[in-house]
Amino acid sequence: MTGRGRFRFVGRRLLQAIPLTLVLLLLVFAMLKVVPGDPALQVAGPRASAATLEAIRIHLGLDQPVWLQFVHYLGRVATGDLGTTATGSTKVSTLIAAGTPVTLVLLAVSTVFTVVIAGATALLAARRPDGLADRLINVVAAFGVGVPTFWLGIVLLAGVALPTGAFPIGGWGDTPATVLRAAVLPALALSVSVAPVLMASLRSGIVEARRSEYHAAAQAAGVRGWTLTRRFVLRNAAVPPVSLLAALTTLLLSGAVVVESTFGLPGLGLSLTQAAQNRDFNVIQGLTLVFSLAVVAVNLVGDVLVALLDPRVEV
Amino acid sequence: MALVQVLGRRRVRRGSGGPALVIGAVLLALLLAASFAAGTLTGHDPALTDLTARFRPPTAQHWFGTDQLGRDVLTRVLVAAGTDLPLALLGAAVPAVIGIVLGALAGYARGWIGTAVMRLADLIQAFPSYILLIVLVFLLGPGGGSFLVGAAVGAWVTYARLVRGVVLRLRELDYVRAAQAAGLGHTRVLLRHVLPNALPQAVVYAASDIVLALSYLAALSYLGLGIQAPGIEWGQMIAEGQPFLRNQWWVSVMPGLAIILVGVAVRLIAGGLERRLQR
Amino acid sequence: MNTWTKPAAAMAALAAVALVAGCGSGTGAAAGGSGPAAVKADNNLVIGRTVAVDGMSGDSCYGAGSISTMPMIYGNLLTNKPDGSGVQPGLAASYDYDAAARTYTFQLRPDAGFSDGSPVTAADVAFSFEQWRDGKTSGSYYDMIKSAEATGEHTVVVHLTRPDTFLPALLTWCTSTVYPDRYAGKSPEKFFADPIGAGPFAFVSWQNPGPSETITLKKNPHYYGAAQGEPHVDTVVVKTSADAAQQMLAFQGGQLDLIEGLTADEGNQLAPEQARIPKPSQARDLMLNAKRPALADVNLRRAISAAIDREALASVQQGYVVPAAGMLPTNVPNSVPPTTPYTYDLAAAKALMARRADQKPVTLTLGFEGSSSTLSTMAQLLRDQLAKIGVEVTLKPSDSATVYSQGSSGDFDMLISDLSAISPTVFDPISFVVAAWSPWTGADGALLKEKFTTGTSSTDDSVKDAAVRAIQDDAQAQSTVIGMVNMSTAFAVAGYVEGFTATPFLSWDAATVKIRTGS
Questions:
Q1: Angle at A90 between CA A88 and CA A91, to 5 degrees
Q2: Interchain contact A160–C (C-beta under 8 A)
Q3: A162, B182, B273, C295 - which has most CB atoms within 10 Å?
Q4: What confidence tens digit (pLDDT) does each residue in A189-199 have?
């Protein structure tokens, strides 16, 4: 693909994301209309008079036509105003700003773990397809997928963090070192369920790559060992997983929500769970928006990456 | 869901997939059967509180011990299977059926219907499945029904894409064209040609989706958003037993092992089915 | 694939063994710094709790989180004696009540200072009295206050609207937070974002407000106890987490020095010397909504009360809970039981059921805070007990805020809620019944209000006791608020923490706490 072609592909993909984003916003906005309960009542409290309620309704713009309310909602979202939590003590945007780094660090460490675990096991498994190692790894992978993440989290806390004292039992850190230490066990719990997916994809990628003509040619040209693996096997084997990027991200995000609750990490996932438990509407709405926009963004990046990595992708 | 697309596609040497399939199916069937006869099998009432028999460790009388209310944990683990397994099976099957129908629709109906279905699929995929589930449970209130709706809304996309792909491929094939030319209706073409081609992969997806559905259901209940007491469910049991993890570990460890057992059984079935259907 | 099954089975067995071993090992003996030899590396007190604060203003104080935190930051004119027997001097060195003139005169300590270094003066205290009285949320508790004036540098005179002997207890509450005059020149919003107080600790930060917040405080060098070396610890860090079980593990792992609001479920996982259990002084009551058609019949309400096996409810929280005799907390001054204590009588309950005007089957919802394991256990037991008289109960777990809003909006059949004294007088919990529970449940509050006024305007203990007994008996007759058990609000305390005294009032004196650092 030519440079210009790539540029055009990226541009077109970006344009495609715009209507999707708008529909997402509409959907999240519509949640407000579906949820039982009067939002004005939520603001005013149960003992408010009818006059107070009406005043709040006008203040919140609830007396206006729905489409205009949506336009106002877009305006508020654009300026980062997502309302406050149910108790009114915190802005939702502040909550999101505070939780995002936690979730991002958790996702980053989990990604590293996932890639390392999946890469190592895939190489091992692909060495001799259907060999003993391959089968054993497949069994372990099945366990990894089957173990409930939250349960594994509890077991890691009680069985590893408590006896060794090497990791905090729940909670986050405040310096880079303590943050990383706090992220290890949750990231491990999360990777255990996601790594098998990447491992299976990588394994078949490696097996295919080994069978390919490139590989044979390279071998014939005298390329050996790690160079061969790296340049001719892994590079080609990486293409299918990259196209899985979006799927892996949603899996990781889903897992992060669970793991953050189990380990008490003050990230976006814990906020989401607590908001669902406390029926805190603004927080749910704000977080749904953030999560879905993140997935749209990751899909976008994933598609672009595939286009750049794989010369065979037609654009 | 992504998990299955990859995990389901292992190519091991072809052979009889029989034993794995049989063992897995028998395991699940036994568990399900045991859940209905739990009280008779163990001789205990799953809901009967006995405050004189709290926190008995596993013994011959109580294989899995008793919980904070003196209830027999084994009986409760078995009874919970009757909640978890059907919900997990439905949580995988309902989206599969919806996805197959919508996918076929999208493949056949060119024009706006097809476009609409696929755009809807794009939209759904923008939500991580578990987050979509939490949001829907938030809107609908906790419970098994909300879980099923959440699972259905989130998981049909994979099947729709699969079936649509098959339809698009098949409709260009000579024999389908011939069938259509011979006056066979869309429905019959769908039943005779499209479904048999798409089904194997769909079944493999669905089988693996059971594991995911189960872990989501358990996670929701663990957080108090799924099945609530007096309903008996593995995730809810784990949550109830968690305060006692240090000294009475059996209360929350046993239901966790049950979930793993189901995971293994379903993996056996999925692997076996794949082999059988791909032959 | 057929070769797959054997390793799978082996793995399953292995995993099971490993997990069981992992969880079962460890006795918790070494954990949490137990034993007299234990030391901690730093002089910072890390506290765990499950309830977030309600805000930084005293006016918003409602829950256990704020009740414990507000006094640390702001300080009070009077404080509770740790044994619960009465009040003792705080920022005020002494006070006088003049019943005839309807005034209280407070003499302030000259050595008290706010965390910004300015001294605590009469003007600050007079300003604070006005803030409490005019508070949006808690102002109604202070309606006996007409005005407060500074008559000297350290003398404040409070004029009352009516005779009142309740004020000294009220001044120990978390709502009676002493502020600098005119919020030190700031707007209330700015002030409460970075508050200044005269308590033992100064506010540093409040991160991530909500269910998983962290509050950090540091030593206030101008605290009036500074001459005695108080407070002893350098920093207080309060870590809130909704997950009590995880907090327990963190304590056992030495990552928390103290846990507030310890219940039997967690406490029984600890070594005995780590749990500090004051006398039970928190009533766990069942509210019945008399505005609901079925529950409008007093026979059903009394039948429910008679069908509750309080011994059984208490037995699952052995050591932390006793069966209730009346609806009010025990072990608080002037708390007397009703004339006849509650008795478990299934036959009487069934007879009462038969006497209902409407003999339709009864199905009632039971609201409670689901995240508490002791509450969930109790709700399940209650469900079993009421089934015996043919009352079918649907459990409705939710969070504490929802339980509160269900109560205040009257949207409930039955609701479990706790009634605690936060100061040494039983009229403190009664004031809450007067203001909230009685109207929520649709009870007839006439007698309750009358006896409350009688009790809080007298200085005579026999008059007070008689009023309380009448209130207990009235509650039993109406049965809209039914006592079930009385609980201790216990603490988990690490072995290297010294000078900690558990009080029955949810708050405790953080200034006296020392950490043995080994140096």
A1: 100
A2: yes
A3: A162
A4: 999 988 988 88
